[in-house]
Amino acid sequence: MLAFRLLLASILLASCLPCYEFATTLQDEEVQYLKDIAKTLGKKDWNFNVDPCSGEEGWATPNAAKGFENAVTCNCTVSNDTVCHVVSIVLKAQNLQGRLPKDLVKFPFLQEIDLSRNFLNGTIPPEWGSMQLVNISLLGNRLTGPIPKELGNISTLTSISVEFNQLSGALPPQLGNLPAIERMLISSNNFTGEIPETFAKLTTLKDFRISDNQFTGKIPSFIQNWTNLEKLAMQASGLMGPIPLGIGDLEKLTDLRISDLNGTDATFPPLSSMKKMKILILRSCNLIGKLPDYLGNMTKLKTLDLSFNKLSGEIPESYFNIRDVDYLYLTRNLLTGLIPSWILEKGENVDLSYNNFKAGSQGTTTCQQRSVNLFASTSSSNTSGTVSCLRSFVCPKSWYSLHINCGGREVDVAGNATYEDDTDGAGASRFYQSRTNWAFSTTGHFLDDDRPTDSYIWTNSSKLSMNDSRLYMNARLSPISLTYYGFCMISGNYTVNLHFAEIMFSNDNTYNSLGRRIFDIYLQGKLVQKDFNMEDEAGGVGKAVIKKFPVTVTNSTLEIRLHWAGKGTTGIPFRGVYGPLISAISVNPNFIPPAEDGGSSSGISMGAVVGIVAGSVFAIFLIVLLLWWKGCLRQKSQLERDLKGLDLQTSSFSLRQIKAATNNFDVANKIGEGGFGPVYKGTLADGAVIAVKQLSAKSKQGNREFVNEIGMISALQHPHLVKLFGCCIEGNQLLLIYEYMENNSLARALFGPLECQLKLDWPTRRKICIGIARGLAYLHEESRLKIVHRDIKATNVLLDKHLNPKISDFGLAKLDEEDNTHISTRVAGTYGYMAPEYAMHGHLTDKADANTLKQEVKLLDLIDPRVAYHCNAEEAMLMIDVALLCTNPTAAARPSMSKVVSMLEGKALVADILTESMEALKSIGRTLGKTNWNFSVDPCSSGDESWANFAESNSYYVNNVTCVCSSITCHVVRIALKGQNLSGTLPPQLTRLPYLQDIDLTRNYLSGSIPPQWGSMQQLVQISLLGNRLTGLIPEELANMSSLTSLVLEHNSFSGNLPAALGNLPKIERLFLNSNNFTGELPETFARLTTLKIFRIGDNNFTGKIPAFIFQNWTNLKEIRTVASGLSGPIPDIGSSGNLEFLMITDLNGVESTFPRLSNLSKLEYLILRSCNLIGELPTSLENMPKLETLDLSFNKLSGEIKISLPDVKQLFLTGNMFTGAVPQWILNTNRKIDLSYNNFTSTGGVDDCQKSGLNLFASTSRINNSGVVSCLGSLNCPVKPLHSFYINCGGKEEIINNIIYEADPDKVGTSTFYRGTTHWAFSSSDIFLDDHTEEDVLVLENKQLSSSIGQLYSNARLSPSSLTYYAFCLHNATYNVSLHFAEIQFTDGKNYSSLGRRIFDVYIQGKRELKDFNIKDEAGGAGKPILKNFTAKVSDGTLEIRLQWTGKGTTVIPMRGVYGPLISAISVFDPVYKPRSESRGGISAVAKVVIVATAAFTTFLLVVGILWWSGCLRRSSTLERDLKGIELQTGSFTLRQIKDATNNFDAANKIGEGGFGPVYKGILADGKEIAVKQLSARSKQGNREFVTEIGMISALQHPHLVKLYGCCIEGNQLMLIYEYLENNSLARALFGPEEFQLTLDWPTRRKICIGIARGLAYLHEESRLKIVHRDIKATNVLLDKNLDPKISDFGLAKLDEEGNTHISTRIAGTYGYMAPEYAMHGRLTDKADVYSFGIVALEIVSGTCNTKHNRVKKESFYLLDVAHTLKQEGNLLNLIDPRVASNCNAEEAMAMIDVALLCTNPTAAARPSMSMVVSVLEGRASVSDILMDSSIYASKLDAKRLYGRVEGNDAENNNQAKSMLRDGQWTSSFDLYLAGSISSYWQDNNSTSTN
């Protein structure tokens, strides 16, 4: 190409001389074309102000850096010197990020395109095939797809280079027609298939490179035709040997590189005629025999590499003639004899390592002689097992570890070890021995790198952020092979840790990031990792990955080898970048190392123990003294304690800096005074002007809170927020440093002293107003932290020098958590600016800030006379309108600040949608369970994320309410809520949206049925309810939707017959009914659905035959799927469906039938007729389908020979039929995905393997070999003793479980694949996953999140789309136990759509179906839970077959499309009769050493404890110990260590709650039992004995509705309670917790929960031996188990109720809103206090809202009990029922529960019923009237006096308690006695109303 470029340049130089003389320029059209291709390429720096042919800057870059080129070359002599034309475009190494422009075809004279080393993507345009190009170079980009066959039309093309891309597919045969091609460079892509035969015609080729691809077949013999070839590179091409004999005819070859061939052994090829050879590489080519003499005649040879073959014999004497060769590599062969003296004396860069030369040869006593590597070059080894050249090395000791910093200096890693120095420069043939017990050997030099010397160490030039980054700053490289060798090591099992980080590529959008480094890893000679790519494994460049491998050292030596097998790029970022790279090595023992004192077994001497202990004590003393001196142990000031641990996200300034900046807070620098202190102007040393706010820290109150909020707000960045530079915290000083605002505040500018006022014209005022609104919108909606400022006013708006507003003074700001409707807070702000609801009730929302915005506009005095004459009246009126909206007295009516911005900027109108639609949406949201719609903004606004998602990365998530707006109002036309796990029901209220056209509720958790009311919405066009829990029938009313075009009901639980009325839908085009429980026949009325285009009815229970009208009447049909629909065959004739593109019919019931008639299907792309009972031969009509891409006829009974040809079909599956004859050549020669397994072919065309490229031939013939297994397995090499067991970790790596090795099965094979395991098993997988929108199917699944809970054996699994067969051979004939391990790891177990998937398949063993319709999740009891299915199988011919078969049942789109088919985690098979001979193992006792170490540790512990006690740290615990002394808890006892292990040391990830007494953690004990651990604080001495005594008492209680206390842990000052773990958390979270945690509790479940709580309380009060008052009954303290049964918990406040007491006088404790009035006000406690609390909880269960947070009406906030009484007085008690269950609950039961709740909350304790009576009423065994007539519940007047009488001496205390508790509400406000008459009359009224 250099010659071409020089010739082209010389011609153009001569031709362009007239251009400058006559000022000839480029054609205007071509200038425009250049602009067009610049856009396509992403080329932005071409200067179109000058002529592109001028050679000026932008069109040519003189003296450019090496590799970079920017040139557009023109020819101006084409058209009589009147115009110029572009002939060459060269843009190299410019990181262009566009695509290849097809518009290049518009340049008629273009000859050269060079876009090497950029970042271009896309495909090569086929249009280029019409050009007259000479050179195409696209090296080093991101190009994909195949090479267009059209390029074969470029008759002038001499060079094409597409190396280092991602091109794929087969090479087009048309390239063989290129008549002038000289260079074809296609290395490092993903090309497949064989080299086309047409390439034999490429006799002009001089340079051909195809390395690093996935070609198949043998090296073609026709390369002997390429007699002009000078360079040939086939390294890791995928081709097989042997090297063809005709290669010897290529006499012009100077560079031959062939390596890493597949195939069998072969002798050396005849190369004697190649006298011009300079580089000869035949590495890893399976060569055997002796070295040929004729190589000694290649006197021009510079590099000879024959390494990694099996060459034997001596080195020929003729090789003396090539003694001047630069590089000679004979590594790892079988060479013998003496090493020639010329090599040892004069050889340069010779590597003879790993051969069998004769020991005692001259020089073989050393491992390195000059630059000759002799390591392991002889066959003998010394007595220690090391190679002979190390024989003189005497081990000074035995090592049990190894740590090397490869390529770097010595590094100490904290807590680990010292990594030794490894900085030797190495070389092409280098052995290096360290000073300790390791060495390395490296082989090879970097080819084509144009560097004077190779570098074998690479140093990273950028910052690395991983742990122990010093280990990764340097790395050792090797071009071919790098071996680390450890010796003098103790025999045993070790773990080898190999540290890698890719530091030669980049991590950006440049060509430097496109490199791929791939190599293999060997340990002890065994391949442990093939095709290792550290960048992929680590997840990016500059990221560390540590590969861990187990290894056994048996002869004191360890060998680690990294080997480059020809794969990966070699020219990115520059040529010569490839081969192994390693950062560090650490080898650690898997055993307790022995003493390192030369073999002494005496252990540590007592003197050493004493010295260690004494040293430890002294060190501890020094540490304690240092901490005291540093002040860590002294009493801190209050401010320092407040600020301790606070991580402010700002800079830190010293007090000295601030004093210098403000001239020691000079009064002259004082610029203001705020509520928190003065503000000073200051100038820092660098000239920066700042504002310093000096805060008073004299008061302790508020320091921590205030600084916490400042730390939070400091992270905010916005142009309209004042920037906080940092803070200064020294002593009791707290200073805040802000940016300085030149124009002070808006208040001073508008209405400050006259001399300080600024002239603000109208545009400036409008800009200021919009800026403030933008700042507030950021705080409320856009920032990660949602902030309410609380004090927006003109004083707190500052103006910079450009009069841009900046909001300041966040001292009162509050964090607004998203799930809070308001923040209850101490009222703070400025009078006149606070919102009414905040000033009067303390309820704070972001609407308080919206209110204050108006106040600023109001102060302009409507309109300021100073601007009245010059303002824009329309803009002013708009601002006033917005201000009035912002000051609406109702907070909900105020707009959001983003809406304000839109209105002020004129982007939105000051209008709302219709009130009716708004109310309808509110009702719809409640029914759906959609809680995050923000009704404070217009639903039709385009800026609120609650109504529309904008940048959602999850394609399955959609949140859109779409409107169509007129000039007056808007209407909702579409509601799309996809993937949101809504748990409500389908809302009938949708009918209130008259313009609604589209309902999409795909992938939620909705239940219930389709409302028949929807049938009235004739305007509906689309309904999609895919992936929910919907049940019931399809309402026939839906047939009234005359506009409906799409009805999607897939993947639900609908049932019943399809309504015949649906056949009346006149416009229906899509009808999706898959995966439901529909029954009956398809209605005959469906014949009228002639508009149908897509019809899916798979996975149902239909009956009858496939109706003929489907293919006769539905002439517009494009797709039909009846997969396991339940229908019977035969398939009707399909001749009339000419528009069909996708036809899928599978798993038909019925009898056998011949192939259906398939005429007139020219548009068909997918034809799938699997398991349809088809017989006969393949019809020739299949050849008349030109667009057919996928043909699946598997699992039928088709027979005969394959006489048809389908060469264009991409995927062909004929598995499990009875085909005979020979496999056609068009199948054998293709590289497409084809599965012929399990057939009766007689010949496979000479292909003896079970897999040929993409062709699966396993069991495809009727022949078997002499072992009884299928013939394609060839020679099995079965062991002498047959196998009695095998274990496979399907889809995972090797695992050892209970001393059983489960073999690795990690290969991520693709479509139609056979894979043979490492031992005596294999598997075959068939078919593809449909609709998953991925290029390659993923057949190995990993769920890392489950690995810790269910074990590594189940966290991986193998998948298959259709059929997965495991096949074992070489087994002993016997009866085996077969265990199949399953765990569903693709679905979840939560309350979300991901839990709704159903995976169903069949299991066959030895051809017999053992399981039908097997569902892993159902069998295991949930997702992520293992299940083991056990079978017995008889093996009679040494083979065992296990097949998993998908028969079309189950869901296919949950949680995403393409999730279905068999899944298996592991297989274990063993002969139960066979008893292997056990082996005894000895051990060495280490008791003495353990005793010494334990004694030393115990002594140290005593000394440390003594010091801590002496310092007073442990003295307080003595009171706790006395309190706990003698307590005999009736529970189990746990150690602190057990609890730490169970909770992973109280990991925050295991924290499941926080109570008043401390956090609660989930834990798993060693036996697998799940527990809840409550960690209690024992700092206070008061109450320990009483509390633990009561816990011990309550632990004896046993009841189904009380949480079970397993035991406790009492160690030191730790007190922990261990309970049973409840899966569904608390009732509070289930009812009104965060939306993602709420559960769908239907009415029966709620009633069950209420009754359960009542039963539990009845047991405590009346049935147990100990009478207990709980004192804190609330929804938070009611937990739900997996069956949603309630359990009362948290007995921390419970009190013993002795029967003789009328009440318990006690310190008041409980929760506001749940305490009974007599207890809250007087401290009188009886069991009726629990009854009152139960009544509140019952109301919460009915209403679904929290008592203390009830805000059903936004403008007010009530307690739920107040609401109930209000509704009672209005006669509307049924309105209290939760809308989520209102439509489906039993009204009579609900009213009974409300009646009981109101009775339980009677203000008079004596009037409340007992809990046993409550249980009777709730269960229907008694009525409310029975309670009212029961005189036993009313105490006498004396009892009442006792209840409310005051005990002498306690008045003051009780008064104080009453006052303290009354702050939360008056308990005696409006409670009326609940009379029977009112109940019955209300009930009668409502009954009469409901029946009318």
From TrEMBL:
Q: Can you tell me where the transmembrane regions are?
A: 604-629, 1486-1510
Which Gene Ontology cellular component annotation is one that this UniProt entry carries? membrane
EC number(s): the record gives 2.7.11.1
Question: Looking at the keywords, is Transmembrane present?
Answer: yes
Q: Which InterPro entries match?
A: Kinase-like_dom_sf, Leu-rich_rpt, Leu-rich_rpt_typical-subtyp, LRR_dom_sf, LRR_Rcpt-Like_S/T_Kinase, Malectin_dom, Prot_kinase_dom, Ser-Thr/Tyr_kinase_cat_dom
Indicate where this protein is primarily found: membrane
What PROSITE patterns does the record point to?
PROKAR_LIPOPROTEIN, PROTEIN_KINASE_DOM, PROTEIN_KINASE_ST
Q: Where in the cell is it found?
A: Membrane
Q: Which SMART domains does the UniProt entry name for this protein?
A: LRR_TYP, S_TKc
- What's one Pfam family here? LRR_8
Q: Which reaction does it catalyse?
A: L-threonyl-[protein] + ATP = O-phospho-L-threonyl-[protein] + ADP + H(+); L-seryl-[protein] + ATP = O-phospho-L-seryl-[protein] + ADP + H(+)
Top EC class, one word: transferase
Q: Which UniProt keywords apply?
A: ATP-binding, Glycoprotein, Kinase, Leucine-rich repeat, Membrane, Nucleotide-binding, Phosphoprotein, Receptor, Repeat, Serine/threonine-protein kinase, Signal, Transferase, Transmembrane, Transmembrane helix
Q: Which CDD domains match?
A: STKc_IRAK
Q: Name one GO molecular function term.
A: protein serine/threonine kinase activity
- Residues in the signal sequence: 1-16
Q: How does it sit in the membrane?
A: Single-pass type I membrane protein
Domain annotation Protein kinase: ranges: 665-934, 1546-1824
The record's annotation in PANTHER family points to: LEUCINE-RICH REPEAT-CONTAINING PROTEIN DDB_G0281931-RELATED (PTHR48006), PROTEIN KINASE DOMAIN-CONTAINING PROTEIN (PTHR48006:SF81)
Q: What is this protein called?
A: non-specific serine/threonine protein kinase
Question: Which classification does the entry list for the species?
Answer: Eukaryota, Viridiplantae, Streptophyta, Embryophyta, Tracheophyta
